[in-house]
Known about the structure:
The chain is built from 11 helices and 12 strands. By secondary structure, the protein is an alpha/beta fold. It folds into 2 domains: 2-8 and 256-375, Aspartate Aminotransferase, domain 1 (Alpha-Beta Complex); 14-252, Aspartate Aminotransferase, domain 2 (3-Layer(aba) Sandwich). Helix 1 (14-20) runs antiparallel to helix 7 (239-277), helix 2 runs parallel beside helix 7 (239-277) and helix 7 (239-277) packs across helix 11. The chain binds 4'-deoxy-4'-aminopyridoxal-5'-phosphate (PMP). GO terms for molecular function: 2 iron, 2 sulfur cluster binding; cysteine desulfurase activity; metal ion binding.
Amino acid sequence: PIYLDYNATTPVDPRVLDAMLPWFTEQFGNAASRTHLYGWEAADAVAHARQQVARLIGASEKEIIFTSGATEANNLALKGTFEALGAQKNHIVTVATEHKAVFDTCQHLEALGAEVTYLMPASDGLITLEQLENALRPDTLLVSVMYANNEIGVIQPIADIGRLCRERVIIFHTDATQAVGKIPVDVARDNIDLLSLSAHKLYGPKGIGALYVRKGIKLTAQLDGGRHERGLRSGTLNVPGIVGLGKACQLAGTSMLEEEKRLSILRDRLENEILNAVIDTHVNGNRTYRLPQTTNISFENVDGEALLMSFNRIAVSNGSACTSALIEPSYVLKALGVPDDLAHASVRFSLGRFTREADVEETIAHVRDVVERLRR
Ligand code: PMP
């Protein structure tokens, strides 16, 4: 089937794989080995990758902490901040449509004594600055707002949020897993203190990611041990994964602007032609402030489960692969006010580097055929 689920994960780019391969075999050294060439070479490769990651988001390489992915980065950001500073201020503000890796971490912190405000987005998926401002309190320690939503692709007003948090001396974390590599992200421009990212969403391997920690931000480590990564994340470094993440970031940086254009044209065609060809369909989320390659469409008068099961020529999903019990309607769409039956019959199409025009044409025809058949 045609793969249109790039927001769930991406294939490893062959150039990324090539960069990684030697670090599994001949160059297998431990990056923490200080006494021989094997270790020195691995450490150099990690340093190079750290620069590549930093450059993509406008950070300095000292501010990059490698983790096992964005789930771990989010956990470290939120739990690490609360553990370091929660005795002074214990209020956290986040959004109801966050990924579970942030949402459930906030619930965990609530059980430990944090007070959490969950902002409800408008029906277009966006929160407003006024809404955030009204939620802030003298004891607000941390604001965590995702850069771009994995299910509907909407992009929150991150630069405005960053400016407000900096003014109020509140730590600002953003889960940028779906944004990094797709749109320009710059931690300095946006006044971001903590930022999570993951390699497997940008043509790197699964199981590796990073947390950007702005210089001067205090965190308590969540993994103790050999004090790797400036003591913030102990554990022998995943050198091949880190090299792959670095290469993926470098490639994303060079092709991003072109890809943004190419994919937004393909996405718009897919979206507009489905809306034209199939009556009673709606796009979920704001269509302006949105990732260039994501569209989430609801189909009225069809059974959601039958719909997803009938797509045999395309690989799509109804939202997050991480919570993909088909029976549960998406909590993101529910937060936008989409009724349960319509949320069930909603499909996320996410395009990527290997999507071609012919794929889009075939998808349009297939979707039209399937929906027409099910409605009959
Ligand atoms: N945050 C967002 C917004 C995501 O889309 C994902 C991946 N589904 C994650 C966090 C988790 O990332 P990882 O798979 O690297 O743990």
